[in-house]
Amino acid sequence: MNDSILRDTLQRIQGLIAKSTGTPLQGQDEKRLENVLRNMLDHPENGAASGSFLNREVTILLADLRGFTSLTAAYPAGTVFEVLNRCLARMSEIIFRHQGAIDKFMGDSIMVLFGATTPHADDVRRALACAVEMQLAMNEINQNHKQLGLPDLYMGIGINTGIVMAGLVGSDLYSEFTVIGDNVNLASRIESFSLRGQVLISPSTFERCRDFVVTGEPMDVHVKGKTVPVSLREVHAIPSLGHVVPRQEIRRSQRIEVRIPFTYQVIENKTVIPRLHQGVILDLSYHGVLAEADQPLPTYSEIKFDLDLPLVGHRATDIYAKVVKTKQDAGRYLSGIEFTSVSAQSNMNIQLFVQLLIQGSEQT
Asked: Among 60-69, 124-133, 268-277, which is the least confidently predicted range?
């Protein structure tokens, strides 16, 4: 029974990889993929009764596409699914090459496990190498998107390592192997903090790989359900592999003071809430704004808004952004907001608008 399932699963995955890359995995790469699938089917845990769990240390990788919400709103369903399948097929290829196990696809998100079915001493390193290669692959996908006239997509990735409960859930009619526990929830929270192109890791993951990766300074975030802040680090490079994360969030860019009224909508669970809110943009750069809002915007919350650029005769519509900092000052709610999805045309006009204002301010 397992052999027929193995052959069918292998054929399906190879088909996805071939559709994305033009050729299926061959030779040793195909053998490694087959071994991963066989381990998942033949491992004793997979034969356990539903509801039976084991405690096991696992590294959990959560990845989510940024900019996908705007894609679904602007393109027909056929194009949306073609783009999604292309991305997921490429990511699956990388995941299997690093012997990760895809726990589930959740729309435009992927949950990957390292060490859940077959533990390895280097699970954490393989998870990190996988995450960085996924970000490198997104750069290549976006190059293809430019040729096809499609918008750029980016990926935010969160990684956590810790003890989870692993086993089958479901019934005799349907069951699946999965992991549950606080460390799974923490991985999900970390992913939600990630900006486009980032790989963020938890303290436990960092302790197991500090000699393998180059990271930024620790940044404390308040995580729901935790009484103390969690210190996250952004992965910048893996020197031994020659990998450098192609960082998308360029925070140091030209900035100019403005005063542009705007309306925005809050995004909750990837759904744009219809209610319109008012605000004023006080500071504009290539990649984000400082805005005064009519309400406190929680850090890492997401919004959608339009932006009038009178000097260049353009209205930038359907800008998706994430709140990266917020504070109250003299009764005002101020939020630092970074763009997560902007059309190529609007991005060009925003940069031109900033450049014209800078030149104007230098002349006065």
From this structure: 60-69
Q: Can you give the pLDDT at residue 362? A: 41
Q: Are residues 66 and 109 in the same domain?
A: yes
Confidence of residue 41 (pLDDT cuts 50, 70, 90): low
For residue 97, the surrounding DSSP H or E stretch is helix 77-97
Q: Would you state the structure tokens that stand for residue 150, as one six-digit string?
A: 């499609």
Could you tell me if residue 33 is inside a domain? no
Domain co-membership, 215 together with 301 = no
Whether 4 is in a domain gets the answer no
Number of domains in the chain: 2
d(CA 158, CA 222): 15
Q: Using CA atoms of 90, 91, 93, 94 in order, give the dihedral in degrees to the nearest 10.
A: 120
**Which pLDDT score, from 0 to 100, does residue 4 have?**
66
pLDDT at site 278: 93
Residue with tokens 């990788």: 61
| Last residue within a domain, chosen from 211, 244, 277 | 244
Same-domain pairing of 133 and 231: yes
Q: Domain check: are 221 and 304 in the same one?
A: no
- E strands in the chain: 53-66, 101-106, 109-114, 154-170, 175-180, 199-201, 214-215, 219-221, 230-238, 243-244, 255-268, 271-272, 277-285, 288-293, 302-309, 314-329, 332-341
| Statement to judge: residues 261 and 218 lie in one domain | no
Shared domain for 55 and 189, answered yes or no, is yes
* pLDDT above 90 (res 226): no
136 pLDDT higher than 90: yes
CA atoms within 13 A on the CB side of 76: 2
**What residues have CB less than 8 Å from 97, skipping those under 6 apart?**
25, 29, 32, 33, 130
Reported as a single tens digit per residue, the pLDDT across 137-163 is: 999 998 888 888 887 888 999 999 999
Are 222 and 107 members of one domain? yes
Please give the residue range of the domain that contains residue 280: 255-363
Q: Does one domain contain both 71 and 212?
A: yes
Q: Which percentage of the chain shows pLDDT scores above 70?
A: 85
Rounded average pLDDT over 170-175? 62
Q: Please tell me whether the overall predicted TM-score, pTM, comes out greater than 0.70 for this model.
A: no
Contacts of 226 (CB under 8 A, 6+ apart): 186
Tokens describing residue 328: 């109250």
